[in-house]
Each structure stands twice: as C-alpha cells, then as structure tokens.
C-alpha cells in the first residue's frame, strides 16, 4: 500500500466554505462532518483497537443487520425492472444535454441498466447459500488469513466504483470455512451499494456469525472513484478501513500478527 492519505475528512480542509457546500462536484460528503480523531476509520493504516468503534454512527443501525434476515432480488425482479431503469437512464442522458436518439447512444440505456444490475448482483445472493456445506469442524487453532481479495463495489453516495483489496483473518474455534468462501462473502457484500466502513463490518460480522471464531479481522484498502476523479491531488488517495472483533480487538499481539501478515 503506498502512502495512503485521508483526503476526505481531514480537518482543516476548506470543505465547508468551498468544496462541501458546492453541488458542482456532486459531493455532499463534505457536509457530513466526522469529528476528527474519535474512532476514525479512514486512516493511513489499519488502526489499533477500537478503530472501528464509534465510526459507524451514520450507518450503525443498518450495519449490524445480519445475513440471517436477508431479502434477495430475484432474476424475475431484474427482468421486471430493466425497462424502468433503462427509461431512467434515457432521462439522465437527456438531462446531461445528450441526445439519446443519436446512434452511439441508442442502446446505452439498456446496456447501462443491465450493467448496473450486474454491479449490484450481490442483492441477488444470500450469505447463507455460500455457507451451506462449507463449514467444517476442525481442530485447527492457528490464524487463518486470506489477503489481497479483489473487491469491486459501488459508492452509494455517487453510484460510481469503489475498488480495492480485502484482507481477512480469523482465529478458528473448532470451525473453519472453506477458503474460497471468504472471497464469496466479499463478493456478495461488495456487489451492492456500499460505504466502505459498512462493507468492512458486514464481512467481519458474517464470519463471526457463521463460525463463532475466537476473533476476526477485516482490512479493506480501496480507491473511491468519486474521490480520485475530482482532482489530481487525490489521484493516489486510498481509504483504509478495519474491523477487529474478539481477540483481534482485545489482544494487541493477535492483532499485530494479523496486520504484519497481511503486509508481508
Ligand atoms: Zn462517493
């Protein structure tokens, strides 16, 4: 990871007077102030204990929602809603000053609608289906780590991509999950409209609920297109979020081992 900076909510930025108040760049984030310091998740490096606490205020109520009560979007739903999503894209094209009838754009609304359904296909899947037949009783009590899982998601504030890498570690307590399933959990939650903090936490909570492990750590390093497309100085900014549960949260040694292993 190269020199991540937190460009989004850094104190001292002139977002209130200039950036934040402006609708020109489509960013309302600047208006939502987070107190600097307190439990900051957007940080230059995976944060020590408590890093994830208190930073989910905005999403806290929905964050803890468990996969046990998930509702999914069906393929029939997709088919039914495709025309109206495409019609909405036609409206958007016109609103942007384009001519939806010109040749290059004729099929664009349908393509865009289909693509958007694909980008959000995580709504069509349930965590429980991934877990079926993939949880094994095992007397393994060493840390399990899967790092550099590719992640593509969509920022729920701007509907543009967030992409990056996810690192997962857990300390089993008699139960383990098929390794490929960790990547599947990432896929299901990331292919939805997201904020990075919630995505991080949802992955950690899903693993906790599925395996009841001794501890779980999830770190995500990601690039938000809504940030990097707005200015050269933000080109290389990365956002790092982490959620530590159980011993990963309580025991600095375990947490440090995890953080060291995902960097090596
Ligand atoms: Zn955004």
Automatic annotation (TrEMBL):
Superkingdom, natural source: Eukaryota
Stated name of the protein: GTP cyclohydrolase 1
Protein source organism: Nibea albiflora (Yellow drum)
């Amino acid at each position: 990871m190269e020199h991540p900076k937190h460009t989004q909510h850094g104190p001292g930025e002139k977002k209130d007077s200039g950036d934040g108040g402006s609708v020109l760049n489509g960013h309302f984030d600047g208006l939502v102030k987070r107190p600097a310091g307190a439990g900051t998740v957007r940080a230059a490096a995976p944060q020590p204990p408590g890093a994830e606490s208190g930073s989910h205020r905005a999403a806290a109520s929905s964050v803890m929602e468990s996969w046990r009560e998930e509702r999914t979007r069906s393929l029939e739903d997709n088919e039914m809603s495709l025309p109206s999503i495409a019609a909405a894209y036609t409206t958007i094209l016109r609103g942007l000053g384009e001519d939806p009838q010109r040749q290059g754009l004729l099929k664009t609304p349908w393509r865009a609608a289909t693509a958007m359904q694909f980008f959000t296909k995580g709504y069509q899947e349930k965590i429980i289906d991934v877990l079926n037949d993939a949880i094994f009783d095992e007397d393994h009590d060493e840390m399990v780590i899967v790092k550099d899982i590719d992640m593509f998601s969509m920022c729920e504030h701007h509907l543009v991509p967030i992409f990056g890498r996810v690192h997962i570690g857990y300390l089993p307590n008699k139960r383990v999950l098929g390794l490929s399933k960790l990547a599947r959990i990432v896929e299901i939650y990331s292919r939805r409209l997201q904020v990075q903090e919630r995505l991080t936490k949802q992955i950690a909570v899903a693993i906790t609920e599925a395996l009841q492990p001794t501890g779980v750590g999830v770190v995500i390093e990601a690039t938000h297109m809504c940030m990097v497309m707005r200015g050269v100085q933000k080109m290389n900014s990365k956002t790092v979020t982490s959620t530590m549960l159980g011993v990963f949260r309580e025991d600095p040694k375990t947490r440090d081992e995890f953080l060291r292993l995902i960097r090596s």
